[in-house]
Amino acid sequence: MSSMAPANSPRNQRSATSYYTRHQEARQQYQRNYNSVKRLGRRKIGQREHAVEESMRRRERTGQRGRYTTAWAHRQHNVDAARTLTMEIEEGDLSTRLVDMENSAMEGHGDNWLPVFLDAVNALIREVEAVACEAVNQHNTDEGDAAKRQEQLHGIRRILAGLHQSKEFAEQGFQAGGAAAEDKAWIWQGRSVNRTKFYSVYRW
């Protein structure tokens, strides 16, 4: 007499349910991994760019690449067309200064370097905010070259946003800034400022 139970027997039903339960989490994890790699948003991108982004996502999943978020830069890969050569040079000098400040904080304070670095960046932000306040007031009252004043304000906007972004990446860990640099997501690399975020803070 066969020991095989009928397909619809209670024993087989329990077995099928147990198998489904055991493998449900594995299937869900696979789907999450697949989504994180394949679903790259609604932006239309070329085949080569799509492959590069897929590779980056896979490296993030395996810990070979850091993750980051930034509220201060434009989410898309937009280069700021209004960025002048003067802005580029000033931002490059400031970026070098920030690296020196970070290294100094690490050398002087070891594992407690981050609050020291953030305090130093906040001090820079306050200095630039004072310059910005004067420039905005002048822009609102001066009858001089409007285009020149607008360019000046945009340069200040980029510096302020870049300083805030430097804090963002420092707080997210060492790998965040490197991953952002790979994506050319740093404002210092020419990425456009997220004006919605900027306006929500500075109102100009």
Query: What is the share of helical residues?
Result: 55-70%
User: How many domains, in number, for the residues?
Assistant: 2
Report low-confidence residues grouped into runs of 5 or more: 1-5, 33-43
Give the helix tally: 7
Radius of gyration from the CA trace? 25 Å
Question: How would you sum up the global shape?
Answer: globular
End-to-end span in angstroms? Answer: 86 Å
The string of secondary-structure elements, in order, is HHHHHHH
Taking all residues together, what is the mean pLDDT?
81
Notes on the structure:
- This protein is mainly alpha-helical.
- The chain has 2 domains: 10-61, no CATH class; 85-202, no CATH class.
- The protein is built from 7 helices and no strands.
- It has helices at residues 10-38, 47-61, 85-109, 113-141, 146-171, 174-182, 195-202.
- α3 packs antiparallel against α4 (113-141) and α3 runs parallel beside α5 (146-171).
- The longest helix is centred in the N-terminal third of the chain and has 29 residues, at 10-38.
How would you describe this structure in keywords?
204 residues, mainly alpha, 2 domains, 7 helices, 0% strand, globular
List the helices and strands and how they pair.
Blueprint: H1 10-38, H2 47-61, H3 85-109, H4 113-141, H5 146-171, H6 174-182, H7 195-202
Helix pairs in contact: 1-2, 3-4, 3-5, 4-5
Quick recap of the structure?
This protein has 7 helices and no strands.
